[in-house]
């Protein structure tokens, strides 16, 4: 479901394509039957994590993880969370004397309101936690410039490299056998349709898109807004739609199967997001890969992604959003295929995999050099 899980799945696939052996150490999952075989996946006992009940934290397994890792003869540990499994990963790497790299996926300052309504944890606590975790790392992957700037401002000293998570471009090519989304949700073929696809969380700011929809309908009376996903903000958003009298024009699909995501992009004319909490925004790239233009909130990552207006644009204000959505709904076809191909080449899963391996190799070289220097000094 999450962008982090998608990133890990993509990385594993690309590393294995290159001939590398990949093992995933993660938490138990109540949605996975205990007896189901999962290739090269090791699960550790866990409990739901504080206010994020769909996220889990391992409560034991430190030495078991070390024993497994030693038997597997690992070369590199790549952690993907700053919490329990991340700390276990750091311990394993340090004990086995191998490099440990980390991907900083989540901009935690955007999520502090989930814990005691923002009264318990402050931005300074995020800084302290991040600095503590990033100490003694051999490399940090920043999915975007925004993440790099944040980590630098915190004072992280480990080598940081911007490597956006790539996507499998083939997965978003049209398929004649894919789900007919418009037919399923009874939406006319000629109705201009906007897609919002994400976890329905307050920081995704879907409220702003709904707020602007009456003005969009004034210009395009047949328009539809499809909101795909589920999450804590769903009831609030549904109530907002009803209050604004938009029930006939807004569709909530709930959670969908990941294999059907491409069909939703293909069925719509424009992808829209008012979120400013994305460290990267995989859905933006997925939309472009599905040949769908995007209108998204301005930020360092999105402004860099959308340098060509032929693919979409970014907005800063509510009025800009409404104006841009109306324009791009009227001009929804991507005609500059060269610009699209160049953009997608930079964010392909293949490019992602090769850049990560390059980082691993550099980290290994620097780690061995550092160990040799330490040995020379002690002698």
Automatic annotation (TrEMBL):
The keyword Membrane does not apply. Pfam families: Glyco_transf_4, Glycos_transf_1. It comes from the Bacteria. Residues 2-171 form the Glycosyltransferase subfamily 4-like N-terminal domain. Residues 181-332 form the Glycosyl transferase family domain. InterPro entries: Glyco_trans_1, Glyco_trans_4-like_N, Glycosyltransferase_grp1. This is Glycosyltransferase. Keywords: Transferase. PANTHER family: SULFOQUINOVOSYL TRANSFERASE SQD2. GO terms for molecular function: hexosyltransferase activity. The keyword Transferase applies. Coiled coil: none annotated.
